[in-house]
Amino acid sequence: MAMKEQQDPSKILIVDDDIDVLNLLENWLSNEAFMIKRAKSGLEALNIVASFNPDMVVTDLYMDEMDGMALLNELHSNNPLLPVIMLSGQAQIPDAIQAMHLGTSAFLTKPVKQQELIDTVKRFLPNHKNQSSLAHFSKDIVYQSKPMEDIIDMASMVADNDVSVFISGPTGSGKEVLAKAIHNASSRRDNRFIAVNCGAIPEQLLESELFGHEKGAFTGANLKHEGLFQAANGGTIFLDEIGDMPLPLQVKLLRVLQDFEVRPVGSTKTFPIDVRLISATHRNLEEAVKKGEFREDLYYRLKVVPLAIPHLSERPDDIPVLAEHFLQKFAKQNSQDKKRFAPEAMKYLKKMPWPGNVRQLINVVDLCATLAKNKSIPLNLVKKAVNDEPVYIQTLKEAKYAFEREYLLSVMRITHGHVANAAKIAGRNRTEFYKLLSHYDIQPAAFREKLETD
Fold first, then answer.
1. Bridge partner list, 277
2. Is there a contact between 275 and 235 (Cβ–Cβ < 8 Å)?
3. How many CA atoms does the CB half-sphere of 77 hold within 13 Å?
4. DSSP assignment, residue 338?
5. pLDDT band at 7 (very low <50, low <70, confident <90, very high)
6. CB of 153 within 8 A of CB of 126?
7. Exposed, middle or buried by CB within 10 Å (0-12, 13-18, 19+), for 111?
8. How buried is 64 (Cβ within 10 angstroms: 0-12 exposed, 13-18 middle, 19+ buried)?
9. CA atoms 51, 55, 58, 61: torsion sign
10. Whole-structure pTM over 0.90, yes or no?
11. Full set of structural domains in the chain with CATH
């Protein structure tokens, strides 16, 4: 099989309404031993795709009837992982940014140089691209099962461009871990990765958290606040539990994704952003769209490349390697010798339903490693840990604590640590608010670092 893959040339479809450009591109790429098909329009390209099944499409942006953007959308509606290289002699920077976020692998300006085109094509062909990207994923994600292998393979193919990725999966399955791994495997890895839980921030604060606000935008807003989209500029923003985002804010997020600029609350100015968006939810957004709880246009804008993480019980082959990884991590953190699960204990772990997914497995492993008196963790201790570990749902007290702490962090970020202003937003007097900060171990000084630059 490996020999056959080396012998078969990669198939590239080139699309341009300029015959001279088609001839030039075909000549260059044929000399590199690629199999070439050509189309003079987007509509002709779509007719060819079904029978030719290209490994890559190289297309002009501006064409009559169907331009490159429309062709890109049609191609990715059937195959979101198909590499597409966009060429244009007239495009502006917003065109390039939009093309990248819609799934373009690369955007080249005409007149393109021969070597530049060839290098770009080779870089984004699946067989070439996978090897380098997979190396990054192996550092961040522990897996052994076929379902996870398929997901990582897909993620590695899209990591190094700016296409929007939508991660679905049950709570605790590792959606943020996958999002961070995609960021680390991308060209944005040296810039910030910012994760936001849309369900943990109160509705009245979420817009300001994401997009920022101007001084005086609302009661207590005595300072200008930079939103997380601007803070993530050049990097990646991960919107977790996006299914919990209120409808009015969904409209504003859609506008940001269309225009690649944000307008802070209370401002008349917009600010350009260059951010890669990854979103996730445990909810069924298709059902939410049908019920009118989530905007359909935003849903399809987010779901350019969908990645569905299966339940841990559906990938039991991952449990031994994950358990080993967490035992190793626990031993290192606690300066102890690494322990191991007895064979019958591991069999039990593999048959568990794991309602709390990987998060629950981590808790069970840590509890077992803490309680085990010997290096071998017996079956009876695993059963005790599973029964003692609170899995699938938080207590009301825990949920209330988590919500209040996230709320306090939000108002402190927005007010840059100004306690009086934060107390006004929260509807508390300053003395009560100080007590709340102390209770949740929140230090106002930690939020004042940027005061001089704002």
1. 237
2. yes
3. 8
4. P
5. low
6. no
7. exposed
8. exposed
9. positive
10. no
11. 2-124 (3.40.50.2300), 131-308 (3.40.50.300), 312-388 (1.10.8.60), 396-447 (1.10.10)
